[in-house]
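Below is one record:
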Amino acid sequence: MTEPDGARSPRPGVAPVLSRPRRRRLLVALVLGLVVLAGLVVATRVPDPWGDVGGDVLYAVATYVLVILVLARVRPLVGGAVALGWCWAVEVLQATGLAAAVNDAVPPAAWLLGSTFAVRDLVCYLVGVGLACAVDTWAGARSATPRRPGRSG
């Protein structure tokens, strides 16, 4: 039985179970929250240069996860290309001075737009998106593999 909101109820009178796409979206949203939290901790608590590098890698991972959350049916490599394109575009924007002007007008924007151009950041974004894409591909392959009876894991 399908409920109006897309949830399924295995038996009448029993609370509906989330559909597979809704479970995935909920999991992706949870992962995004955890990655953002980790990024804030690393960027504010870990001394540079590791805090800066770790924050950049986690920014790229969060961007990838956000792309997957918004474009739920996109393949990992396409999601990775979109996320990497966004990260690199933001980094290039920093070289123009436009990011600094926005940050002056809206200081919290610095968490999204950064402040100064650095070539190292481009590499960090590539690493972060690559890792996120690899984990997503691995997790997708793992969830698509049928489980044999009597085997957990």
